[in-house]
Design brief:
Blueprint (H helix, E strand, L loop, with lengths): L1 H13 L14 E10 L7 E9 L4 E12 L6 E3 L6 E3 L4 E17 L8 E17 L1 E5 L13 E5 L12 E4 L10 E15 L6 E18 L8 E3 L2 E11 L1
Antiparallel strand pairs: 1-2, 1-14, 2-3, 3-6, 4-5, 6-7, 7-11, 8-9, 8-10, 11-12, 12-13, 12-14
């Protein structure tokens, strides 16, 4: 993921046109939303909304809210021998993080009204609200020693490797994604963010672009995702966000 972010960053800088800087008035308000890809997430890391307001001298202030899932680097997907459904062996908890933040953004290169690229640099900070939600699986307790008289006994339970030992034959897969979310434990933390965004919107009122940057995040306690592996309370990551929105 990191090498793709760096490649896109370099390519975008190379495509900034020389006429991008101009003296026309910057928009007063912007609202954008997007999807996030990061080095601590899966295929799609999460989503974000952001609202910006112009201050002066190319400076904007903004607030944003990002929701992501943070995965353990040793998460490996396994498959049930009986059903073919997937599960994460050894996983005890999901980690979802809500990141409200405020920040400042500076316009380095202004975009022409209907062409070119606008380049902004930004920094922000805010609390991190970690939600440790138990990871549930479907486990097969059927007594197969009874032969044809065996009654199927499948139970949805929080995964515990000490109890659910027969992962090859008895684990039938993960439970529904949001199972156990109501049992989440809240873990407070803090984060800071910095990066650059490139806006390619063709029309003045449209906002379309990509943002690349880094997040440094820490929590008050160790976040146990896989008990048998090393866990941490510190989560640095690089990310890329594709966003769209409107301005006025």
């Amino acid at each position: 993921m990191l090498k793709y972010i760096l490649f896109f960053f370099t390519l975008s800088l190379a495509t900034i046109p020389t006429y991008a800087q101009q003296d026309d008035q910057l928009p007063q308000k912007e609202f954008t939303y997007g999807i996030n890809f990061n080095t601590n997430g899966g295929l799609i890391g999460g989503g974000v909304i952001k609202s910006s307001r112009y201050l002066q001298n190319n400076w904007f202030k903004f607030w944003a809210l990002e929701v992501v899932e943070v995965k353990h680097p040793k998460e490996n997907r396994s498959y049930s021998a009986s059903t073919g459904n997937s599960f994460i062996y050894g996983k005890a908890n999901y980690l979802f993080v809500l990141r409200p933040e405020i920040g400042r953004e500076y316009v380095f290169f202004r975009k022409a009204p209907e062409a070119g690229v606008q380049v902004n640099g930004f920094f922000s900070a805010g609390p991190s609200i970690g939600l440790l939600a138990p990871y549930y699986i479907v486990y097969d307790y059927t007594d197969y020693s009874r032969g044809p008289n065996a009654v199927a006994d499948y139970r949805v339970e929080a995964y515990n490797p000490a109890i659910h030992t027969d992962f090859e034959n008895r684990i039938r897969g993960s439970a529904a994604f949001f199972t156990g979310l109501g049992e989440s434990k809240i873990r407070p933390g803090l984060h800071v963010r910095g990066g650059v965004n490139f806006e390619y919107g063709r029309y003045r009122e449209d906002v379309t672009g990509v943002e690349v940057g880094f997040v440094l995040e820490t929590f008050a306690k160790e976040m146990v995702i896989i008990p048998q592996a090393d866990n941490s309370q510190f989560f640095p990551s690089f990310y890329l966000t594709l966003y769209y929105g409107r301005r006025k």
